[in-house]
Amino acid sequence: MDILFLPANEILILLCVVSFVAGYVDAMAGGSGLLTLPALLLAGLPAPYALGTNKLQSSFGSMTASIVYSRHGLVYPQIKGWMFPVAFVASFTGCFVVLHIDPVDMTTLIALVLVVIGGYFLFHKDKEEYTGTLVFSRSAMVLSALIIGFYDGFLGPGTGSFLIFVMLHFFKMDYLHAAANGKFVNWGSNLGALSGFFLAGKVLVLLGLCMGLFMFLGSKMGTGTAIRTGGKLIRPLVVIVSLALVIRLLMQN
Asked: Is residue 3, in this structure, part of any structural domain at all?
């Protein structure tokens, strides 16, 4: 396909609206691909181009959220210095692998993990007093970024939920800091996978940029909502996104 391909006007408008909504939700709870990827496939894009173009537009959302959260002092230097670059390299590797082999069908396993994570979020109460101290080691940051980054490039569903879970459970953050730091790592993994798809010629650049603009606007609004509410919307949104991903995965299987 031509990298400058654009669908008919009415389809393009619909895709941009979906990107805006996805950006708003994704800034707080992840899960933008739950909306944007099916929309791209329904628009008639072959799967590899849908995946590559989705990574381009979603990178705008993760970049915007990361910058806004960082400006408010919510992202830790350790996350920026260690998890971001590791997630980038791991995701690029995962993308390279998935472009050269048929991915293993792990739908049931992913759905089961998302059910567990959704249940964790459902019953996990936010901390009333957050100390702002990371409690895990550098090796734990690198290992978690390596695993989740590779997964994001190789498969992808639930990456945002997995990252928030890691920040909450292992690094003992509150929901707002978990969303902020998880999104920063997700930015790295998005860029890594995008690099792989771009080198393989699987990104429709013009379409991705159009959707990315609306993803940017939605993400900016979503981060503002998260910061104003102190992250109170993040927990229910993550539960909803996790369960919606489970339903989608099981319906695909």
From this structure: no
CB 176 within 8 A of CB 231: yes
> Could you tell me if 27 and 74 are in contact, meaning their C-beta atoms sit under 8 angstroms apart?
no
Assess if residue 15 is contained within a domain: yes
Q: Classify residue 126 by its DSSP letter.
A: P
pLDDT tens-place string over residues 190-200: 999 999 999 99
Find the domain containing 110 and state its range: 9-252
With b for 16 or more beta-carbon neighbours within 10 A and e for fewer, the 182-216 pattern comes to: bbbbbbbbbbbbbbbbbeeebbbbebbebbbbbbb
Q: Provide the domain count of the chain.
A: 1
Nearest 10 degrees: CA dihedral of 114, 117, 122, 123? 150
- Report the alpha-carbon distance of residue 113 to residue 187 in Å, rounded: 22
> Could you read off the pLDDT of 124-144 as tens digits, one per residue?
665 544 555 667 788 999 999
Whether 202 is covered by a domain: the verdict is yes
